[in-house]
Specification:
InterPro entries: UPF0178. The protein is α/β, with parallel strands linked by helices. The chain is built from five helices and six strands; from the N terminus they run βαββαβαββαα. The protein has one domain: Rossmann fold (3-Layer(aba) Sandwich). The two termini are 16 Å apart.
Amino acid sequence: MEKYSRRNSRVFVDGDACPVNKEIAKIAKMYDQDVLFVASYAHMRKDEGQNEWKYVDSEAEEVDLYILNMAQRGDIVVTQDTGLASMLIGKGVYVLSPRGKYYNKEDMDQILFFRYASAKERRAGRYPKGGPSSFSENDRQNFKESFIKLLSNLKGI
């Protein structure tokens, strides 16, 4: 993991369908880290608690565009959108999936090719059996460990 230096980094969360929002808020608080959850108005929540939320239009890609425009070198973004991840990595942003996988430059060509090939198959009417695996407690634990490790490294702990 390449280390970028920038003061006052921020965590942005693609919050529309993120299964680890509570874990992000809890861990970020332990590290005194600012977090902004970004979601569309269609996913507005009543139980925001102490967290900061930014709501954007419900049009396709609005959340991604907001995060892409606001995130700066050294920030952290939690998203499962590989297209967004590839653009953010180019800006020097750390990108982590809700399953705890770090996205990096070295893997992006393969990830984006797989995304393209899968979309091409779906357009041709061929769908994989079973779809993606369900989000598990093991995925949640992997995310927590990866997020803690990333924040610890960035804070120099």
